Structure formats: C-alpha cells, structure tokens
Inverse folding.
C-alpha cells in the first residue's frame, strides 16, 4: 500500500546520481573559478608586500633625517672603512650606513653592543657582543622570500651614477658613469666602485668609504635625489661573500643608477657566459637597484618621500635623479 502510494505521489526510493558529463562540467566550473581567484589573491598579496616595503623605506627616511639632525646635517656614511686617507685596512670594518642609524630604527640595544674601542678605531667584527648575523625584519621586503632568513637587507644607499667597472670584460652601462660631453649630464668620470675619500668624486649620497655628505652638498634638492633603493642582495656578489647588513663591504652601499632597474643578474657563475651580463660578480651590471615587484622598484628620495619608479624610466633621467649635484632639470614621470 505504502509502496503504491509513494509511486503515485511521484517519489522514488532511488537517488539520482551525477552523470559523468555533469561531473566534468562542475569540475570545469570550479577550475575556472580557481583560475580567476588565484591571480586576484596574488595581486592583493603583492600589493600588501609592496606597501610593506614602502613603509620600511619610510622608516629609513626618518632614521636618516634623525641621524643628520644629530650630526650637523651629515648623512650616515655609506660605509666606514680605513682610518688613514687612501690607506684603508680591509679588516678595519667600521660598519655600514645601517649600523650608524640603529638607534633610529628601534635597535638601540644592538648599537650599544658595539665595542667602539675595538681595533683602530673600531671594527664591527671585533665586537664580541655585536651580532652582525642578526636578522632584522624591517630590513627585508616580503616580496624577496629568498633573503628573508638571512642577515642581509633589501635596501641600499645610492651611489648614483658612480662608476663600477666589472671584472668580466663586459661593461654595457659604463657610458652612464663616463658620459660624453654631448650628453650634457652635468657630471664627469668618477672613481670606480665608490672607492674615494673626496666629496667631489661622490656622485650619489653614499659610497662604501667614509665621505661625509651634508644636505648642503646636495644642491639638486633633496626631493630630486635618490637616497635609498630596493635591492635583491642575493643578486649581488658582495652580499653573498658572507656579508651582512652590518659590514661596510656587504653590499648595502654598493648600488647605483648605471644599470637599469630590475636588470637580470641572477647568474652565479664567474663570468661563465663570456660576457657576464647575468653574473652577479659583474659589477657593472649587478650593482643596480632591483626588486621582485612587477615593473619597477621603490625608492626613498631625500625629502623622505617614497616613490615607485618604473623600470622603463629614461636612463638619462634615472642618472640625474641619482646624482646629487648635476644641475640638470629632471623630474620623475
């Protein structure tokens, strides 16, 4: 009786299953939705990473200005090395520019751990309680996951259009540090690698030896001059030599504007591809600013402003905003 009633009412005891075609359609729809969702999530994540990197640069900007306020408008040295002019001792490591602003980036205890009487006059390597291997989160851009667990930094002080001739015999960007007069760049040839103790030889605001650059020595204007930019430390040989954000020769003041932004230097060989363009020890290529952001990199200007510079920027303009005293009109697009 009940069986007949259920049949009369239109009910069936058997549940209808998906056909294979219907199942494939559902899977295809899910795949399309995932395909649309994943790029959106990645885009949001990268936007957050880029903002975090920008905020780190803003903190460096405040720290640099605080340091200058205590030191007669002098910028922190790109690096401090050698106690006698032209007679630097490679063991006399007096610290990178970051070491000198540690109190201004909430690392005062780390700064106090330095033995300022070690060596002559000091060496960050000789301070037993100073941990040059300490990983500091604010020195890392989250877009660069490779370096996140290392005592390196994604931010380097700018040498501007300072020369950096590489050992590979291939220097594709040398014309920007030794410009022809016809280019009217407002600056001339400079000592290689930032190895100078003379202010007139300094093109940007930092080199790896101690040259005090005051705000008054930046006549092009703070808002028109790059102070710090984003870098990928593992694409730079000095960072991979066992360097650290703390060492003067660890790569944190070895970057300039001669190479285009984001030029590839991921190779790890010793000029092994003959021209060396992708090798990180080809200094004329590797000593450029770069990031994992799409299309460019973040830069801290002298007035504390952080701006994203497109990697397609005109190379002449790029050199001029890197140079502190070229006297040429240049504005970021």
């Amino acid at each position: 009786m009940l069986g007949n009633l259920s049949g009369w009412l239109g009910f069936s005891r058997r549940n209808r299953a998906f056909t294979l075609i219907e199942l494939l359609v559902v899977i295809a729809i899910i795949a399309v939705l995932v395909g649309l969702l994943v790029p959106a999530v990645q885009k949001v994540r990268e936007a957050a990473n880029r903002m975090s990197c920008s905020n780190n640069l803003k903190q460096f900007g405040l720290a640099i200005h605080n340091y200058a306020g205590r030191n007669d408008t002098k910028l922190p040295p790109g690096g401090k090395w050698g106690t006698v002019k032209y007679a630097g001792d490679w063991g006399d490591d007096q610290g990178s520019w970051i070491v000198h602003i540690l109190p201004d980036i909430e690392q005062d205890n780390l700064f106090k751990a330095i033995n300022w009487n070690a060596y002559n006059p000091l060496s960050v390597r000789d301070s037993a309680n100073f941990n040059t291997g300490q990983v500091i989160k604010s020195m890392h851009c989250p877009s660069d996951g490779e370096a996140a667990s290392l005592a390196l930094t994604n931010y380097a002080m700018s040498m501007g259009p300072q020369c950096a001739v590489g050992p590979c015999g291939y220097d594709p960007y040398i014309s920007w540090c030794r410009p022809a007069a016809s280019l009217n760049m407002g600056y001339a040839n400079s000592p290689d690698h930032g190895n100078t103790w003379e202010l007139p030889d300094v093109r940007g605001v930092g080199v790896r030896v101690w040259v005090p650059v005051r705000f008054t020595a930046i006549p092009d204007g703070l808002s028109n001059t790059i102070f710090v930019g984003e870098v990928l430390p593992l694409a730079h040989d000095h960072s991979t030599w066992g360097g650290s954000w703390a060492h003067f020769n660890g790569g944190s003041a070895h970057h300039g504007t001669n190479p285009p932004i984001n030029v590839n230097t991921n190779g790890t060989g010793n000029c092994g591809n003959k021209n060396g363009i992708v090798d990180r020890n080809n200094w004329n290529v590797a000593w450029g600013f770069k990031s994992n952001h799409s299309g460019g990199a973040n830069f801290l200007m002298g007035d504390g402003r952080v701006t994203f510079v497109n990697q397609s920027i005109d190379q002449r303009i790029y050199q001029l905003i890197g140079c502190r005293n070229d006297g040429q009109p240049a504005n970021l697009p």
Notes: The chain has a mean pLDDT of 82.
